[in-house]
Amino acid sequence: MPQLSTRITSLNEGGSDGWEVFYRARALVAAGEQVTELTIGEHDIRTDSAVLDAMNASAQGGHTGYAMVPGIAPLRAEIAARVTARTGVPTGAANVLITPGGQAALFAAHLAVLDPGDTALYIDPFYATYPGTIRAASGVAVPVRTRAANAFLPSAQAIEELAFEHEARSLLINTPNNPTGTVYPADCLQAIAAACQHRDLWLISDEVYDTQVWEGAHLSPRALPGMAERTLVVGSMSKSHAMTGSRIGWIVAPEPVIERLIDLATNTTYGVPGFIQDAALFALRTGDGPEAAVSAPFLRRRARVLEELARHESVTAIPSQGAMYLMLDIRRTGLSGRAFAEALLDARRIAVMPGESFGQSAAGHIRVALTVDDDSLVRAIRCLCTFAREYADAA
């Protein structure tokens, strides 16, 4: 067999994609085991039936052929109006490209700003696909390490130093953050913006959790002075409207960037099915109410988990202001996040994500997704804490 490309064989550094515990849990479920899955960010509700009805009506009405590659005009305009209203930055349809989900948007954004061999910075902890996405775009992925003691907020000085050392071309950030739940405050984002301008970096801002803010407020860095011309924003219907499987997202960027990204889409995805776009348009036009209904369970469950954690000393929560996760510190057990997650799955059939799946900054932590019903979640957290105490007492 001919040799595969270095690009494709080096996507997962060290051969791991970080999802081993998740795969093991799913294998146990497939074998008939009862497992409480607190791993991936998948809602425990399905897409609203009214949105599915709109999707079906569009498909039955004939919108099953090729759709316009940049996205249908009404959807691009709706997203532009939404972004303008929420950020205060004038945005038109020409600033929007519809993509097959946020992940495709992340890949396209990096292809737009990187030449082969260019360095792209990203914040550690990170969503598990970030470094692989950069490598897939033939970039060199360099993490900006953060500290749990500082709620995993990035240091602008560290960004500046790494950008200078590696002659970086771009920086990828994510707020509200997956996996930590941290919402970057205004002063942090202003410092990041200043670093990007000083080092002439493109900023790729993953904002797919912008409807899940529990404390503080979400600020898109594109709204900061001098940033609209160097920022590419990634958005998605997945988290806001429980449309994960529909694979529909977008990029908001300067018009010249979108023009080139349309060229890319023409030669890769060739757009998103029209009936899915019509369903997304219907969902966005229903207003904020459905989005609030999708997000409400996570706010409620977050409060219940924090209340339960307050009763235990072996596990502590990293302060979280948004998203559908909590990052828990289990270092008192003496175990790594990976070892703890494996042992917990073996002994208690509770599946969580090791912190190490999201980078070395999260070593000794685990991520818990708030994606099962309230009572099951609290029981699982109580069991997790009891399990952790056994190791902590022995340490």
TrEMBL record:
E.C. numbers: 2.6.1.-
Location of the Aminotransferase class I/classII large domain: 35-382
Keywords (A to Z) from UniProt: Aminotransferase, Pyridoxal phosphate, Transferase
Pfam families named in the record: Aminotran_1_2
Protein name: Aminotransferase
Cofactor list: pyridoxal 5'-phosphate
Keyword match rRNA processing: no
UniProt keyword Transferase present: yes
Enzyme's top EC category: transferase
Family note: Belongs to the class-I pyridoxal-phosphate-dependent aminotransferase family.
